[in-house]
Specification:
The protein is an alpha+beta fold. It is built from two helices and five strands. It has one domain: HIT-like (HIT family, subunit A). Strands 1-2-3-5-4 form a five-stranded antiparallel sheet, with helices on one face.
Length: 113
């Protein structure tokens, strides 16, 4: 999608501080971190939101969940971390490209706000 900022990061039109990349996904540091460690994990294909995930995406999303765990381990988030997906306007999804926030490096609070 030509106007999607995350698609532009995938195509390297916009730079990002990448912590992981393979053929299917990209993980990079959030430019406005909400925790000492704040990584965004996105599929390289454009999926607008969790509401648009289809049965054909199940292997990709499963792979992403495993990779999030591996990234958390590499980043030494041994005491725990939070994985967040915002979906839709009321869910505060500000970028219309499926993504997961990996947050850690401090004790998380509940409720999150």
């Amino acid at each position: 999608m030509s106007d999607c900022i995350f698609c532009k990061i995938v195509s390297k039109e916009i730079p990002a501080d990448i912590v992981y990349e393979d053929d299917d996904m990209l993980a990079f540091k959030d430019i406005e971190p909400k925790a000492p460690i704040h990584i965004l994990i996105i599929p390289k294909i454009h999926i607008q939101s969790m509401d648009q995930v289809s049965i054909e995406d199940q292997n990709l999303l499963g792979k992403m969940m495993i990779k999030i765990r591996e990234i958390a381990s590499i980043l030494k988030l041994d005491n725990g971390y939070r994985v967040v997906n915002n979906c839709g306007e009321d869910g505060f999804q500000t970028v219309k490209h499926l993504h997961f926030h990996l947050l850690g490096g401090r004790k998380m609070q509940w409720p999150p706000g």
